[in-house]
Amino acid sequence: WGCVDSAEPACRRRLPASSSLRHQDGRAKAFRPTTSETAFMILVLLPAYNEEESLPQLMPKLQQTLSAMGEEFRILVCNDGSKDGTQAMLEEYATQMPIEIIRHKINRGLGESSRDLFERAGELVQNGDVIVRLDCDDTHEPEFIPSIVGKVREGYDVVIASRFAPGGGQMGVNGYRAFISRCANLFMKVFFPISGLKEYSCGFRGYRGEKIKEAIGFYGNNFIQLKGLGFTCTLEKLVKLKLINAKFGEVPF
Question: pTM of the prediction?
Fold first, then answer.
């Protein structure tokens, strides 16, 4: 599995002996196991910054949940200039599960990390694949991934893990993040209401792979423009996907 460094030559990873995983420019190629010609893939996106404390909590749960689902999966992590042991930990986990690492030499923020993750995901996904994006700080429990993927497979383009759906109510978020989240939800409900949504600010979401490919094809590098404003890219994606007629749904969280 590959490691891509946006500021220096590609990192060397242990790769399957029969697989060529590199483009000439050093980017990792998409690699799909050939156990079934019709196999779908779940592609998990993780933006990471100084996550050495949360990774040992998150990664085993993520591996267990995805393995139990019985589908091919791949984890795409953007290490956004972490100064702790995040990179070394990710490289070790990459020997145990299918992980591709995008590495920023300096911290560029959530917006640019999200842009790089979604653009890379757009290169990898095929029809029927599902993209799941969650935080790397262990505030988004992987146990909700099956319900998110299931809802996408019902015909939704975007499925949000919602605190406001019946049965929802996330715990463990600090007061500042809760306040910002509620302000963002109020802003979106007033200025950019989307049918079917009560939750706008949660980044724990599933996306139909074809819709993300369509969005990147339509918007290009401008799919995520608010790169320097961090949290706002979470809202920006919703607005831009709505403009290309995405169908939205929620599952309790």
Answer: 0.81
Whether the CA torsion 151, 153, 155, 160 is positive or negative: it is positive
48 contacts 86 by C-beta, under 8 angstroms: yes
Cβ-proximal residues to 39 (8 Å cutoff; 6+ apart), any chain: 32, 33, 71, 72
Q: 3-state SS of the chain: helix, strand, coil percent to 5?
A: 40, 20, 45
Rg (CA), the chain: 17
pLDDT digits (tens, 9 = 90+) for 79-92: 999 999 999 999 99
CA–CA gap between residue 240 and residue 156 (Å, rounded): 16
Tokens of 178: 């809760």
Q: Tell me which residue of 173, 242, 243 sits closest to 203, measured CA to CA.
A: 173
DSSP-based three-state secondary structure for 102: strand
